[in-house]
Hints:
The protein is mainly alpha-helical. It has helices at residues 4-17, 22-56, 60-81, 85-88, 90-109, 114-141, 148-176, 180-200, 205-211, 216-226, 255-285, 290-314, 320-340, 345-373, 376-406, 411-435. Helix 2 (22-56) runs antiparallel to helix 3 and helix 6 (114-141) packs antiparallel against helix 15.
Amino acid sequence: MMNVSDTVATMRRSLDDSPMMAGRILIVALVVLIAGLDGYDVQSMSFVAPVVSKAWGVNKAMLGITLGSSLFGMAAGSLGLSPLADVFGRRPIVLGGIFLMTLGSLFSALSHTVRELASSRALTGVGIGVLVPLTTAMAAEFSNARRRGLSVAATTTGFAFGGVSGGLIAAALLKTQAWVWVFYVGASVGAVLFLLTTIALPESPAYLSKRQPVNALSRLNRVLQRLGQAPVAALPQPAGRQRVSYRGLFTPGVAGMTIRFAAVYMLVVTAAYYLLSWLPQLIADAGFPASTAAMVSAITALVGVPAGLIFGALSARVGPLRLTSIAMIGFGAAIAGIGFAPPSLPALLTAASACGFFLAATTAVFYTSMTASYPPLVRVSGMGLVMGLGRLASGLGPTLAGAMFAAGLTRSAVSLSFAALACLGGLILAFGIRRSPQGLVKPA
């Protein structure tokens, strides 16, 4: 006769081994849609930056601060709020993140000064920062073992697709409408997704079985029934409600992994958000209209969609960190290409597309590595810490780039500086893999 712990272990094995039925696929699809809204909102300011800069007479240094404000907000959300999901549950924190993101988009549309706009973007960033680690964690926790890497990659692809949609929407709106409508669209979609999530997103079985909040057993069995799984009769002694703490991320065997993940992520996202934030302005500076600049951003993100899925699927067969290292170095080379491309649309589009391909590949396999490495009770905290530290660094990316441009540095000099950061991140991972043949990933 199985004891309680064996029963729960059997449940987890069943979730890992059973096929992805409709209920699980729909939940992952909803999480991917939320990631898509993240992708739209995180780039929406860059889409309208050329128009705002011209309409309000904003110089490049101030524009860089405005572009970076959402990234600093993302750092606050990732570091300060996303760990709450390991204590109070995934679902309520997801809803809170969508609410903050929607409110920030609405306030952005209603802004009348650069300071108001920057503050509104920071609020939007808090919501995004909460959701990015949660969407990847939720996709992993509702997937079986075979499709887990692909599901996590799908959230990063959803993020990229949100950028595609945002670029296309912005390109169409900026031809006939005021720039504020880019933010009104984000707020409207956010309101719809908040309603859908309230109705359709259940709590994570991993959270319910590990943390065991009030009525955990009945809630868990309702979720299991929805996923086509057998109910469990009882739960083992709960881990207890713990205060939010990062202490568990710095225990033996975990600390080195956390530090390396954080260092690499800080380097790569600093380069990534230089590209994402400044690409439309770079295209506009080359003599093209704002609508064309937004279209280039959309195509760049579109190229990343298949890249994320391909690399995510390959991660089950090839070491994800080896793939990440290769993709990061490729991303660095592509950013350098942006700097040295002549001011012609085909050349700039080719270099930007290469950036989109390697950035999406990097993100897909890197997030897969983190979800596989951290155990459930610190999974969102670990990813939130790594992403939050990355956002702190990435917020400096567009701000520093603005200062560099204002100081007279050329597109090639600025791009080469950020390209070096991405390449360094790839080399750090490669060095770590050589020192440890099994890489950083361990069973969750």
